[in-house]
Amino acid sequence: MKMSAEEISQVLKEGELEKRSDSLLQFWKRKTCVLTTDSLNIYADTQKRSKGKELKLQSIKKVDCVERTGKFVYFTIVTTDNKEIDFRCSGEENCWNAVITMALIDYQNRKAIQDFKTRQDNESASPGQQERRMARAP
């Protein structure tokens, strides 16, 4: 399953999100974020989008620890190497955690379908293996 460039770079959500810094004091820093169908792009400045970090959905294990307080919704993104990145967003807005979770599920589903089709294509390309499997069937 080949995806077109339009599908890969489709923007799902764009806006501001606060990220907890990795420093000792752990300040909340406002970031401009763009969620696409294959990554979450985090920019320090709204004007200069050239300097940013890209967090690919393939490197995200899950969205965890969702907690709602009076003003904010807090959540953690856990990466495949078990690194935790803390975020918060305003509770009034359509919150980022749900959109990121749905994008992650969509990505994982597309990948599973692609892997299944690749496996099917590989099996149909080697007819000897198909015959062996059929010989074992009752």
Spatial extent as radius of gyration: 20 Å
Run of helices and strands:
HEEEEEEEHH
**Assembly level:** single chain
How does the major sheet shape up? Answer: 7 strands, antiparallel
Provide a descriptive summary of the structure in words.
With 138 residues, this protein is of the alpha+beta class. The protein is 32% helix and 38% strand. The protein has 3 helices and 7 strands, in the order αβββββββαα. A 7-stranded antiparallel sheet has the order 4-3-2-1-7-6-5, with helices on one face.
Please describe the topology of this protein.
Blueprint: H1 5-8, E1 11-20, E2 28-36, E3 39-43, E4 52-56, E5 60-68, E6 72-79, E7 84-90, H2 96-125, H3 127-136
Antiparallel strand pairs: 1-2, 1-7, 2-3, 3-4, 5-6, 6-7
